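Self-study notes.
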Amino acid sequence: MMFRSLSLAFALLAATSATASAQSRDDMIAAPALRAHVTVSGDLVRIGDVIDNAGSAAQIAIYRAPDLGTTGTLPVDRVLAALRAHQVIGVVTRNLQEISITRLARTLESKDIEASIARALQHKNGLGDAANLSLTFDRDVQNLRLEASNTGAMQAVATRFDPRSNRYDVTFEIANESTAAPTKLRFTGTAIETVEAAVLARGVERNEVIKSSDVVVERRPKAEVGNDLAARDRAVGMQARKQLRVGQALKTADLARPDLVQKDQAVVLIYQAVGLHLTIRGKALEGGTEGDVVSVMNLQSKRIVTGVVIGRGQVSITGPAQQPSRAPEVSDATSSIQSSQAATLVAIANAASTVSPKAE
């Protein structure tokens, strides 16, 4: 009987010792310990942010958080003093000298804000595509930082545009995870539709041919340049109808195909008829491009005839049922026919209708 009592006592003692040992291990595991790096998503730093195992004191605020998207540091002795003020003691410092605190944020870049405004304004009251809109802001728009809880997309909820003044007023809402009310952002300024224009890099004289180096591409307000713009590829190689100034946006009406024949230029007159071909020197009395009808003096007969410009320095006078064709330049009159045939053809040329030169 006595042996049984002693066995029970020893069992109880062993159980008590085991429980005390387990509690001791739990107390060691639960000891509060400093964190070297802390991140917060709000404007307050709480005890539970800076230490592990904060227990019931976790929600107590002890510091203001850094600015949105920035990181600050705190000396460990100041942190311990703040914890002791709330009866949090026995904190394991892990030999830290300071801790860093980062405040999370959502960053809206200025280029993304501008793109969102342009999309909200496109096709509004006569405006064109978003990609063609040039925006200015009443207040300079930098990268914008919001609380990290603002996770929603920028939704335009109010958009106004006055085409007379080019003024816009756009309000966005961004859904917020932590509150029922969305964050609102409002932007005001001006919006102008622009187009790509071929612009002269130097002044060009009348009848001068425009080279590739003379033209650059710039965006210009659509209302300023109108709808008759010439594309860069269309402008290069064309001839200016009038004097054009540097910086001027080129229009289709400003350009013409380059003259292949200049006034007072020595040209080749090409007389053709069925089976006959004759070339003679002439002098252009007016300029013209391919397909233009111009007046030319036959230097052999001194008569003025009309013909069609068919190439650079070449004018064709056709005989019956024969279409103009290009021929190489020659220094003197040449013929692929017998002398009698040539004489006949020259007579035809000499008998061509006489015209007076066009007035300048």
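Second protein, same conventions, sequence then structure:
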Amino acid sequence: MTEKALRLGTRRSKLAMAQSGQVADAVSQVTGRPVELVEITTYGDVSREHLAQIGGTGVFVAALREALARGEVDFAVHSLKDLPTTQPDELVVAAIPVREDPRDVIIARDALKLTDLPRGARIGTGSPRRMAQLNAYARSHGMVIETVPIRGNVDTRIGYVTKGDLDAVVLAAAGLNRVGRSDEVTDFLSVDTVLPAPGQGALAVETTADNADLIAALAQLDDPLTRAAVTAERSLLAALEAGCSAPVGALADLLADGQIVKEMRLRGVVGTTDGSTLVQLSTTGPVPETHEAATALGRELATEMLAQGAAGLMGERAL
């Protein structure tokens, strides 16, 4: 008798379906059980408002978590950057697989790079974090750009460029890689120019805390270095008391000496969306061996950023 299929809850977008499909294949391999995708519509998918207005954090996550709690699905896959920083006791992130490319990219008309964009170029993004850093970069490099708030899926956003409404749009490299559209990228934005969102490029595989067998199986997909990095990034975000719609960028990367990973460097940035003021700091320490050590790294950097005035740059503080 074949074992009953595991039910994986996923958002319906093309990107969510692609990344959930990849996780489903991996889970099927480690468990020997078939995995079926259960499509769930979230408030973030149906609302046409800008993310910052509808609460940012959690709008794509709540419906999936409710389906888990009701037992309609066995586990769920989230883009980690969409997860609120507080974890409910009844759910556990059983796996954070190896991270995709965390960088932001632009897709611009005429295959232009960021530095080639004409004066007054209109760049679309729904992210205050991207706006703040792009505007700051433009100010410091004598460029004149206009950041235009947009929403929508990958097709919609790229469509603004192909239809000629915008000169460029900013997207996450990871998402384009997962839907097989990375060949449309015209420029990869260095993390020195734009720090990604905390957790960008990483996925969270979540299940109920009482499902010990499934937690153990999913744990085989976990990448400890990715988990340490995103834990530090999200700890920074939490300590700044900022939701995922706040203009906060963070990236923890590993510093290696040859093949041996020596240290972890955590960089954080927060700024006003017009780019006039940025607080950007970094800290380096031993690679965190525990959740507590990774959390401490993020908290320490957040404390330094707050001391430099970060709190006043985030607009509405998340309650």
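Instructor comment on the second fold: The CA atoms of residues 57 and 244 lie 5 Å apart.
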